[in-house]
Every structure is written in C-alpha cells, then in structure tokens.
Specification:
The chain is mainly beta. The chain is built from 2 helices and 18 strands.
Length: about 280
C-alpha cells in the first residue's frame, strides 16, 4: 500500500459530534471463521514470545514522545486513505473489552470519516521493533464497502528509504481476498525500490464472519506469509528488511469504494498481536 505522509490533525469537536454507537456496540465471540485441514505450516515451539498484546486493556496515546504503549498514528505522523486517524478519547476509536480491542470507523455530521490506527513505535522512534521473527495478528474484519483494514510492519530506517511488509490488506469490496506485499519506498532519486506482491483467496466472508490469524516470518533468507498459520507466499528477503521492524494495525478506508451502502459505524476487532523470535 502507498501510505502518503500527509499530516492531519483531528479536532476535539469531532469527538463531541461524531455519531457512533460507542461502548454499546456488541462484541463478538472469539470463534474462528474456519479451520484449515492438516497441521499448521509453522511450528511456534521453535520460537519464544517477545511481544504479547492481548488487549485486556488499551493504552493508546497521541503524545509523540516519552509514553509507553501504542501510538495512535504512524511513526511519521501521516494519514492515508479516506479517513483520518483519530486521537484516542473515551470510547473512540478504540475500546478494549472481553480480551480484544475494537477499532471503529465513523462518519461525523459533516460527512468526514474518522477511524483508528495503532503503532508499536512512536514519532520519536521509541517503542517496540524487532529484527527477524514471526509477527501475527488475530482479528475479525468489517463487512461493507469502503473499508481497508491492514496489519503491517515498517522498518526503523527512514533516512534513505522506508521498508514496509504488508502482512494483510483487505479491501472490503473484495472480502474473500488477502493481499500481501514487500515494499521499499526510496527517499532519494537513486534510492532502493522494491515492489513485490501476492494474494490468496479465502472462503467467502471468512474474514468477516469470525477471527483468523494473519502472520509473517521475516528472516535473513526468506520472508514467508501465512493465513491461519498456513503458508501462501514466500520470497527471498530483500536486504532492506535486515533491520528492526515495528508493528502497525489499522482500519483505513478507500475513497473509491465508499458509497451509500457503507456502514456507519463499522468495526475491526483484534484479539491479539504477538511477535516471536527464534530460540
């Protein structure tokens, strides 16, 4: 995905005026959409856990520096897509309940969309990042045209280029398709550039009818992508990804896909985000 670094601020007025169901919206049960046949293709017994976010509560902040927890914007403070990522307030855009976090997308009375993003690393370069390992999210994705949920990793290096691993991108107009990619965006005219992508089809509505896992193993030799811990794509790891990677998850929106049927509000539920390193 191309995530344009245009900084946008969200005003307090939005949080007072936004029309949403807030904490009254029901939380789903933690059921899988479906279980693939056979044993998983990754053995996590060979790993140790290094980040275990189970969202028993949510600690998200828009403060740029010096605060532990999730940062509610990209590490470079930019928005992308058709919605703005909101500063956390009471019940929006994040609510933690029943061991999961709900990320909400809502439209305010003026017609502007707002939603949520979480980054493990803040704008001052503080927070969690790991070089090599297995990264996984378990989530239930929204239904209805217009939404663009994602789980992705970004390299700590931002001077010459940005390295990005798109573990999951799903456009809700194509609810049975997972898109994944390896991108290197150059910051100079002769900087390195990489654009590799693949996709996999899922059973109809599997991603929006129950919880599934989305994972990637990034190692020095290969990067391997998984859906419910079953491999669907591998690629030799470009050298630009030999660096610490931070974790991001968001409920973005796609302008071309928004129409009169787009639900307001809509939700993405995340059971956990976990990161492992090889023992």
């Amino acid at each position: 995905m191309t995530k344009t670094s245009v900084v946008r601020k969200v005003t307090l007025a939005f949080f007072c005026a936004v029309i949403c169901s807030c904490s009254t919206a029901p939380f789903p049960s933690l059921d899988d959409a479906y279980t693939p046949e056979g044993a998983p293709d990754i053995d996590l017994g060979a790993y140790k856990i290094t980040l275990n976010e189970e969202f028993n509560r949510i600690k998200a902040t828009s403060i740029r520096c010096g605060v532990k927890g999730w940062y509610a914007h990209t590490p470079w403070d930019g928005d992308f897509g058709a919605s703005r990522f909101g500063d956390p307030s009471r019940d929006f855009p994040f609510v933690a309940k029943r061991g999961m976090v709900r990320i909400e997308a809502s439209k305010d009375p003026s017609g502007r969309w707002f939603s949520g993003l979480l980054s493990s690393r803040n704008a001052c370069g503080e927070g969690f990042a790991q070089q090599y390992g297995y990264f996984e999210m378990r989530a239930l994705l929204p239904k209805g045209d217009g939404f663009w949920p994602a789980f992705w990793l970004v390299g700590a290096e931002h001077r010459e280029f940005t390295a990005e691993v798109d573990v999951l991108e799903m456009h809700t107009t194509r609810p049975d398709k997972i898109e994944s990619a390896l991108h290197v965006f150059p910051h100079t005219e002769n900087g390195p550039s990489v654009n590799l992508g693949s996709s996999v089809m899922t059973p109809p509505d599997a991603m929006s009818s129950g919880f599934n896992t989305y994972g990637v193993s990034v190692e020095e030799d290969f990067t391997v992508f998984y859906f419910n811990r079953r491999e669907f794509w591998r690629e030799p790891t470009p050298k630009e990804f030999h660096q610490p990677l931070s974790v991001l998850l968001d409920l973005a929106m796609e302008a071309d896909d928004i129409n009169d049927s787009t639900p307001n509000p809509a939700y993405m539920y995340v059971d956990y985000v976990k990161v492992f390193s090889r023992r």
